[in-house]
Amino acid sequence: MNKSSILSVRNIVKRYPGVIALDGIDLDFFKGEIHSICGENGAGKSTFIKILTGAIKPDEGTIEIDGVPHSVFSPHEAMFQFGIAAIYQEYDLIPYLSVAENIFMGNEILRKGFIDIKAMNQKARENLSLLGTDINPSMPVESLSVAYQQIVEISKAVSHNVKILIMDEPTGPLATNEVENLYRLMKILKNQGVTIIFISHILSEIFDISDRVSVFRDGKCVRTMETKKTNKQELIILMVGRKLSESYPKRTKKISNPLLEITQLSTPKLLKNISFTLHKGEVLGLGGLVGAGRTELVRAIFGADPISSGNIKIKGKSVTINNPGKAIRLGLGLIPEDRKQHGIISELSVKENIIYSSFHQVSLYGFIIAKKVLKVANKFRKLLRIVTPNLEKKIKELSGGNQQKVVLARCLATNSEIILFDEPTRGIDVGAKQEIYKLINELVTKGKGLLFISSDMPELLGMSDRIIVMHEGSIAGMLTKEEATQEQVLKLASGE
User: Fold this and answer.
1) What is the mean pLDDT of residues 163-169?
2) Within this chain, do residues 456 and 387 fall inside the same structural domain, yes or no?
3) Which helix (H) or strand (E) holds 430?
4) First CA to last CA distance, the chain
5) Torsion over CA: 227, 228, 229, 230 (sign)
6) Which of 2, 75, 307, 466 has the fewest C-beta atoms under 10 angstroms from its C-beta?
7) What is the DSSP secondary structure assignment for residue 106, as one 8-state letter?
8) Is residue 258 situated within a structural domain?
């Protein structure tokens, strides 16, 4: 590995009211290395990468790029002058423009002074093929799934001939085969001399792909090591300051009566004759590749998308669910895949987001009781370890992982009997994951039923009592916990 430093940060400090987000960060990044950064939610990782890209300004410190120190620069300068590009957890795409137009935004291909759409489509197609995908470059971005939007973001970044590519949880919405394609691309870029800063909560990914790893905790960089000279347990201790298991907690099965019965459910666009039963006290896993219809299924059950045919029963009684409000009243809760679009209400506070779906629990005769609101919000803040200076802070100002915890808190606050978890631990640190796993066990022990979507295969296998595997809008098979292996799930998910 070339040991020349392409990027150095010196004594970077960033303060916000009530909190020091970064406290004297010193780091060097080498040319042509994959450098991972890990840490709990709120450790300062997102603030750090926003400073590197010029999105926010540090209060103290300097950034050296190719040996030249800078204290302030704009995002435009970062990308087009210094070659620094970032892929954030929340995508920076214009939904009504095409894939190609998004990829080349600000860097359009011109012919005789006019934008050459044909050339852009062709070049975009070439870039996308590097990721092992055949997305139509003329399609509007808003028509793509979350996973495909992420792939467009990656293509957009590499199209600018970047020197330093920052990836913030890039594998979150990707299926196993797409993660492998991403790794392949990262290795190609590394061999071309591109420095990749890779942020992930999935520790196995850090060991799969990175050369070095830095651990952030409470706004400080506590240690930087060669990845091959450390292990998962050491990283966990450095991240959380204590010993913590990364395994899945065991529980005693007490599966009983049917809670949710789906029969021959179909939707106008994708789902075809879906049938299954979720029992009280059961975690029913939902596996499949991106685009298989997992998210579409939970949205249809929750009344967010229309159903063309089929029947839904709750506790043996047929119900019609044509909107999310009715779903909530019938005892259903949903943690959506896309927290930015369907989860958080960005201009409201943390407290307001937590109680948004459960006003009936915190009000009397139509009036909201402030003490009850505070009690509920504080309960879930502590339970899920939501990192925020106070409950009045706007949720948009929290890290992505803490936003996800608030969405989970809102769902739990409704006391739903049936909870539809769509990637609930995406962007969540290892410590918080353990808390969520324990919470899931507590919920099913109390007789609740959970439909659990996860693209993290070990998590899906470790937490599920049974697993439904979907392929192209249909159920390809169902596996018991004893039958379920990664190979079996992937075989069904691929339609074999």
Assistant:
1) 90
2) yes
3) helix 430-445
4) 41
5) positive
6) 2
7) T
8) no
The pTM score is 0.64
Residue 362 forms part of a structural domain: yes
Task: Report the CATH number at residue 365.
Answer: 3.40.50.300
* 232-240 helix and 430-445 helix, angle to the nearest 10 degrees: 90
DSSP 8-state class, residue 148: H
Angle at 431 between CA 451 and CA 246, to 5 degrees: 75
CB 407 within 8 A of CB 344: yes
Classify residue 486 by its DSSP letter: H
Asked whether residue 271 is assigned to any structural domain, the reply reads no
- The answer on 229 and 285 residing in a single domain is no
Whether 353 and 424 map to the same domain: the answer is yes
453: alpha, beta or left? (left if phi > 0; alpha if psi -120 to 50): beta
Cα–Cα distance, 10 to 121 (Å, whole number) = 41
Instruction: Catalogue the E-assigned strands of 126-282.
Output: 164-168, 195-199, 212-217, 220-226, 258-266, 274-279
Segment 347-360 mean pLDDT: 83
Nearest by Cα to 70 from 88, 52, 92: 52
pLDDT digits (tens, 9 = 90+) for 443-459: 898 899 999 998 888 88
Task: Quickly state the pLDDT bin for 1 (edges 50, 70, 90).
Answer: very low
Cα–Cα distance measured from residue 155 to residue 125, given in angstroms and rounded to the nearest whole number: 10
pLDDT value at residue 496: 66
Is it the case that residue 107 has pLDDT exceeding 90? Answer: no
Distance, CA of 3 to CA of 31 (rounded, Å): 7
pLDDT at 40: 79
